[in-house]
Amino acid sequence: MSLTLALRGGDPSRVSTPLLAVALHSGGVFPRVLAALDKAYGGVLSRAVAQADFKGVRDESLLFIGSGRGPSRVLLVGLGENEDTYAAVTRAATLAGRKGNAMGVRKMAFWAPQLSGDTVEAAAFGLSRGSWDFMDYKTQPPAKDRPRPLVEAVVVATDARGSQASFAAGVALGEGQRIARRLQQLPGNVCTPEHFARTAREIGKRHKLRVSVMGRRDLKRLKMGSFLAVAQGTPQDPKLIVIEYRGGRRGDAPVALVGKGLCFDSGGISIKPAQGMELMKYDMSGAAGVLGAMDAIARMKLRVNVVGLIGSTTNMPSGTAMNPGDVVTAMNGKTIEILNTDAEGRLVLADVLAYSARFKPAAIIDAATLTGACVVALGNTATGVMGNDQSLVDEVLSAAKRGGEPGWPLPMWDEYRELIKGDIADIKNTGGRGAGTITAALFLAEFVPAGVPWVHLDIAGTAYSESDLVVIPKGPTGTPVRTFVEFVRGRAR
Ligand code: BES
Ligand code: MN
Ligand code: ZN
Question: Is ligand 1 within 6 A of the CB of residue 430?
Answer without folding.
Answer: yes
